[in-house]
Structures are given as structure tokens and as C-alpha cells.
Design goal:
The complex is a heterodimer.
Chain A: E1 9-20, E2 23-34, E3 38-42, H1 49-56, E4 64-69, E5 72-73, H2 82-85, E6 87-89, H3 102-109, H4 118-122, H5 126-145, H6 161-173, E7 179-183, H7 191-208, E8 211-215, H8 219-225, E9 228-233, E10 236-241, H9 243-248, H10 250-260
Parallel strand pairs in A: 3-8, 3-9, 6-7, 7-8
Antiparallel strand pairs in A: 1-2, 1-4, 4-5, 9-10
Helix pairs in contact in A: 3-6
Chain B: H1 3-6, H2 12-15, H3 32-50, H4 54-79, H5 86-102, H6 108-130, H7 135-153, H8 159-162, E1 168-169, H9 187-210, H10 213-223, H11 225-230, H12 235-261, E2 263-264, H13 271-284, H14 292-319, H15 329-354, H16 358-374
Antiparallel strand pairs in B: 1-2
Helix pairs in contact in B: 4-9, 4-12, 4-13, 4-14, 5-6, 5-7, 5-12, 6-12, 9-12, 10-12, 13-14, 13-15, 14-15
Classes of the chains: A alpha/beta, B mainly alpha.
The complex binds adenosine-5'-triphosphate and magnesium ion.
Magnesium ion (MG) binds next to helix 1 of chain A.
């Protein structure tokens, strides 16, 4: 395990290996995410970034290694317990609930942070109504915060891609996560929207105290918003450090030049 | 890079713009939807006033079917799981009612919720092995359930309860549904109001459920199961619950059917009945619970349409001298369901291609068109 002198790690990724048949998607990757930081995770296509996200949200089970959240292994938990722990995520290709309204999408984000049972729900008992008010307040706040008020009652499926990405962000924040995993949030956004996104990511950390793990191909965004950057290539971690350090790292330069050209 | 990128992000107070929470629009009491609901309710309540006898009976049957359509829609429309086997849960409800009334001497009204609970249990238990099945495989498993049910009900070992092939005739001692509370009411009219009451209660509870945290979890699974799991939604729990609740509602419809017909028999609950419920749901609008009355009407009149279809086929057959090749008399009665199967299939395909969102989709399209024109 890494010994960090900074704040305690929120997540500690310990020698994670993932194999799909013959493909080694992740090869003994290890790094920590420290509380309150924005950690950029970059790497060429197929480097294993999304695979790592899927391990963190327990959609995939690593072949080897461990993942500890606030000191406890999460590998014994099913995927649907992860949001409740305080790990929220967005998806590389938007994965909204297309037939539901923006508001309902965000309400569903608050699922893990609220209680009910089918019988009490059908009877609208007072205690579930109070839960519902709590969910509605969180939702209304996030919709306002991310400027989604105007489209709140529209089905998500028909909205522009950029708006859907913001809905996903709001949905992930609705569970009040400690750690937010963002998988290529800038993908498909125009220049202005990327600027806006950068502000949003900062505000998520600063105003909501959320630690952020950001996977992104948009280099200027990653380099300006991240406190530290981890670089993957062919499933291996090849660099870790401040944006300046990483950009100067010869292995990183080689990986990107070798892949892109 | 603009200024935003270089503002001091450790000092949010300086950059954070003010924003207002986007509260949900208040539910208006006199919204268009509520007015339509009240009008439909008034129309239903007044049915026995301006009509009687057979039409009241038919409308009772329609309401029973509407409950069954509602039940299936909770599973398919809300949770995205298919079932070709809802005739089985309908049968479970009907037999629970008949056995409790005839052998247990239980008040028939009390058997309605009991039938629902029993059907819930069966649905929930059936769901567990079925959880791993999706799409086509789930359809096959439920199909097997539908095919097996009439045969199971005929089993010799349980004949003392089910009455075997003969089934159970209900209310033998009173000849008709007993009207309670000393009311001076025609039994047919009483059954209509009882059914309407149960329909209204089931409808209100189902709507509340769909709009709740549970309902949203079910719809999230329908729209995107992986994202739903990542939001903390347990797929086995909500899928089994949806199956159970769907079976519960369908079982209640089955119990009411037993009371309305005053008779249960295995062959009323064949696979074709499951298809009929499915057709009713597709016509009413998959995922649109309000369409259940339209679905109920469709279920009521489709067999008649199928009969007309049969007669047309017979007429043509006679015209061209093929009549000998077709079954006649009793044999035709047996073949009838096959021809019905054809017409159900044709209507199903038509709706899926022409109006994939059913009558519900058409109505919503018209409403939004009118709204756009008037605004
Ligand atoms: N479910 C899966 N089954 C088989 N192989 C997979 C699966 N998921 C990912 N892989 C493989 O694992 C490797 C890493 O993929 P991954 O999606 O994690 O890359 P990535 O870094 O997110 O790439 P990109 O930047 O293109 O999104 C690739 O070779 C991919 O084909
Ligand atoms: Mg990826």
C-alpha cells in the first residue's frame, strides 16, 4: 500500500487486475484517492479507465487485488450497495432513464439515500410522504444548481446530449456522495459547455465537499482542473503526479504519441 | 481559457452565482387529468341507472378485465418484464375465491383481498427463478406457466377442492350473489358497484405506487437496469416485488371474475386468456395505467370480433365450397379459440406497428396537438 502523507485516502485501489478472457484490461493498478481532491485519470483508448470505474461501482469483479473505501473493502458488496456507501458515478455513454422526466431521474438518484417499502408507498403513509419531501427538496436544489429547472418535467430521452450529461451529474449528486466518479463528462460537449463543466466540477468539490475522480480525454480540462493525475496505458499505471509532472513524464508522452500517431 | 478557469476555486463565495431551487409544479386539483378521471367515474357510476341486465353485466366484466390489464401493465409497462402467463394468476385468484366461499364458507367479499395476497405469494415465488430470465426466456417461462395451469387445476389429487374438470359452481344455496347490508338491490347491479369499488381502490393504490419511490425504482429498472443498480436499486427485490404486485392485482381480478360469473373451471384460464390480457394491455397502452379501461373494453369485445371473423371465414368457405374442410358444430366451438388466436395476433401486430404506444399514446398525441393549437 502507498503511504501518503496527505489526508486519509477515500479510496485505496490495491493491485487491481481485471482479465477478460485473454485481455488484461487492468494489470496490478494501485493508487489512492485523497479526500477532497480532484484526481484526473487519463490514458489512451482501451487503457482500462472505464473498467476501473466498473470495478469501483462493483459492476465488474476484479480477478485480483482489493478496493478499500474509507478503509473497508467493497469487494464483498453487490453493485446496488455502492451508492449507499457514498460513491456516485456517471457513465461514459449517457445512461439516463430515457422515458422518465429529468426530475424523476434525479429523484431516482436519491434512492439510496432514502427509505420506503411498496406497501407504505401504495398507501402513501405519512412517513413515506416525509421521505418524499426530503427527496423532492434535494432534487429541486440540484435542478436549480445545475440549471435544469426549465427542462425538469420533460422526458430525458428527447433532450440534447449535453443536457442529458448534466442530468446524469445531478442524478449522481442526489445520493449525496463522498466520492464522485465522472467518466468522460466533457465528451460531446462544445467549447462553452466544457468551460461550464470545469466550473461545475470545481464547485462540486468546493461547495459540496465531494472528492472527484475524473476520467477525461479533454486534456486542457483535466490538466487545469485536477490536483493530481494518474495515467493508465494498456491496463498499467505508468505515471502519477501533479499535472505538470505528468505532462513532462517521458512514458506519458510516449504513450500518447505512440497511440495517437 | 476564460476567467472562470482561473478564478480562485478555494474561494467559492466569490464565484458561486445565486440559484433558485426548481420546485416541482404544484398539483392542481382541477387539472385536465383529474377532470377526465371524475367524468369517467361519474359515467361508470351511472351505468346501472340508464341501463340494466346484460349491459350492466358486460360492464362489470369490462371492469374486471380492466383490473387484470392494470395488473399486467404494472409488470410490463412499469417494470419492463414480459408475461404470457397472467391467466395463471387470474386463475389463482378465481380459485382462491371459489374454494374459500364454497368450502370454507368465507364471505365472498373477504375473499377478494385474500385472493390478492395468495396471488402475490405465487407471483413473488415465481419471480425468483424467473429473475435471471429476460425477454424471450421470461416469455417462455410464463408461457409454460399458462399452459400448465389448466392441467394442474384438473389434477385428480386436488379434485376435492378444485372440482376437477367440472370446476366449482358458486352461490349454489342462494342462486345468486348475496346482496349485503339488507340492501334492496339487484344482485347484478350490486356486483357492478362492488367491482367498481374494488377497481377504484386498486387504481388509486396502483397510481400511488407508480408515483412513489418504489414505482420510480421499477421504471428505472425498465429504462436502464445497469444505471438503476448503480443508483442503489436492488434488481431482484424490485423485480420480484413488481411480479408479486402484478400477480396480486390480476388475482383480485380473478376473484371478482369468479363472483361475477359465479363459476370457475380450468378451461376458462387457458393460454389464450393470457394473450387476451396482453392484447388488452397493448391496446390500452403499455406503461399507461389510465388505458386499462380501454384495455378492458377491448378484452370484452375482441371475442365478438373474433366470432365475426369466424363467420366471415365460414361464409367464404361455403361460397367456395371449402365448408367441408372446416370443423362444424361442436368441433367449430373448439376450433373457435384457434381462430380467435389468429385475430388476436393480427390485432397485436397491427397495434405494435401502427400505434406502438396503444390508445394511450394516441390520446396523448391528440391532447398535446390540441394544446399546441390552443396555446
Ligand atoms: N465487458 C468486457 N468484456 C470484454 N472486454 C472488455 C470489457 N470491458 C472492457 N473490455 C476491454 O478492456 C479494455 C479496456 O477497456 P475500457 O473500456 O476500460 O477502456 P477505456 O480506458 O475506458 O477506453 P476509452 O477511453 O475508449 O473509453 C479494452 O481492451 C476493452 O475492449
Ligand atoms: Mg472508457
Amino acid at each position: 500500500m502507498l503511504i501518503t502523507d496527505g489526508p486519509t485516502p477515500v479510496i485505496s485501489i490495491q493491485d487491481i487486475t481485471v482479465q477478460f478472457g485473454g485481455i488484461v484490461a487492468l494489470d496490478a493498478v494501485e493508487f489512492d484517492i485523497r479526500e477532497g481532491e480532484i484526481l484526473g485519470l487519463i490514458g489512451p483508448n482501451g487503457a482500462g479507465k472505464t473498467t476501473l470505474f466498473n470495478c469501483l461501482s462493483r459492476l465488474y469483479t476484479p480477478t485480483d487485488g482489493d478496493i478499500a473505501f474509507l478503509g473497508n473493502s467493497i469487494l464483498g458488496l453487490p453493485a446496488n450497495k455502492i451508492a449507499g456507501l457514498g460513491i456516485g458515478r456517471t457513465f461514459q455513454n449517457v445512461a439516463c432513464f430515457a422515458n422518465l422526466s429529468v426530475r424523476d431521474n434525479v429523484r431516482i438518484g436519491a434512492h439510496s439515500d432514502s427509505r420506503s417499502d411498496p406497501l407504505s408507498d401504495a398507501l402513501r403513509l405519512p412517513w413515506v410522504r416525509r421521505e418524499e419531501q426530503k427527496i423532492d427538496a434535494v432534487t429541486a436544489d440540484l435542478l436549480g444548481w445545475l440549471d435544469l429547472g426549465d427542462v425538469a418535467e420533460l422526458p430525458v430521452g428527447g433532450l440534447p446530449f449535453g443536457t442529458q450529461k448534466r442530468v446524469e451529474l445531478a442524478r449522481a449528486l442526489a445520493s449525496d456522495p463522498k466520492l464522485l466518479l465522472l467518466d468522460e463528462p466533457a465528451c460531446g460537449l462544445n467549447h462553452d459547455e466544457v468551460q461550464e463543466l470545469e466550473t461545475i466540477i470545481r464547485r462540486i468539490r468546493d461547495e459540496r465537499g465531494v472528492t472527484v475522480l475524473l476520467v477525461e480525454h479533454h486534456m486542457s480540462l483535466v490538466m487545469s482542473v485536477s490536483d493530481r493525475v494518474v495515467v493508465l496505458n494498456f491496463g498499467r499505471k505508468i505515471a502519477e503526479g501533479t499535472p505538470e509532472e505528468v505532462q513532462k513524464n517521458p512514458d506519458v508522452v510516449a504513450a500518447y504519441l505512440g497511440d495517437g500517431h | 481559457m476564460t476567467d472562470i478557469a482561473h478564478t480562485d476555486h478555494r474561494n467559492p463565495g466569490l464565484t458561486a452565482p445565486a440559484y433558485r431551487p426548481a420546485d416541482a409544479p404544484r398539483r392542481r386539483l382541477l387539472s385536465g387529468g383529474n377532470i377526465v378521471t371524475l367524468l369517467v367515474l361519474a359515467l361508470l357510476i351511472s351505468i346501472p341507472i340508464y341501463s340494466k341486465g346484460f349491459f350492466v353485466f358486460q360492464m362489470t366484466q369490462m371492469l374486471v378485465y380492466a383490473i387484470a390489464v392494470l395488473g399486467l401493465n404494472l409488470l410490463t409497462g412499469i417494470n419492463g418484464q414480459f408475461s404470457l402467463g397472467h391467466s395463471a394468476f387470474y386463475a389463482i385468484g378465481a380459485y382462491t375465491c371459489a374454494i374459500l366461499v364454497e368450502l370454507g364458507g368465507v364471505n365472498y367479499m373477504l375473499t377478494i383481498p385474500i385472493a390478492g395476497i395468495v396471488a402475490f405469494g405465487f407471483g413473488f415465488l415465481f419471480a425468483f427463478p424467473a429473475l435471471r430470465l429476460e425477454g424471450l426466456y421470461l416469455a417462455l417461462a410464463t408461457f409454460a406457466l399458462a399452459v400448465a395451469t389448466p392441467q394442474l387445476l384438473k389434477l385428480h389429487a386436488i379434485e376435492q377442492w378444485t372440482g376437477g374438470v367440472q370446476g366449482i359452481v358458486m352461490f349454489q344455496d342462494t342462486f345468486d350473489v348475496p346482496v349485503p347490508f339488507g340492501l334492496d338491490m339487484d344482485p347484478g347491479v350490486w356486483t357492478f358497484y362492488l367491482t367498481l369499488f374494488v377497481f377504484a381502490v386498486v387504481y388509486v393504490l396502483a397510481m400511488a405506487l407508480v408515483k412513489s419511490r418504489t414505482g420510480r425504482a421499477m421504471m428505472a429498472i425498465r429504462d436502464n437496469p445497469i444505471a438503476a443498480r448503480s443508483m442503489g436499486i436492488s434488481l431482484p427485490y424490485y423485480k420480484a416485488t413488481a411480479f408479486g404486485v402484478s400477480a396480486l392485482v390480476t388475482g383480485i381480478a380473478g376473484a371478482l371474475n369468479a363472483i361475477v360469473i359465479k363459476f370457475v373451471a380450468p378451461d376458462s384460464f387457458t393460454f389464450f386468456f393470457a394473450i387476451l390480457i396482453l392484447v388488452g394491455m397493448v391496446i390500452g397502452g403499455v406503461g399507461w395505467l389510465q388505458g386499462c379501461l380501454i384495455g378492458g373494453l377491448a378484452m370484452l369485445y375482441l371475442p365478438n370480433i373474433a366470432e365475426i371473423f369466424d363467420n366471415v371465414v365460414l361464409w367464404f368457405a361455403g361460397l367456395f365450397g371449402f365448408a367441408d374442410l372446416l370443423p362444424s358444430g361442436n368441433a367449430l366451438q373448439q376450433q373457435f379459440i384457434r381462430l380467435s388466436g389468429v385475430i388476436y395476433g393480427v390485432i397485436l401486430v397491427l397495434f405494435i406497428y401502427v400505434a406502438p404506444s396503444g390508445a394511450g399514446g394516441l390520446i396523448r398525441a391528440i391532447v398535446s396537438r390540441v394544446k399546441r393549437l390552443t396555446s
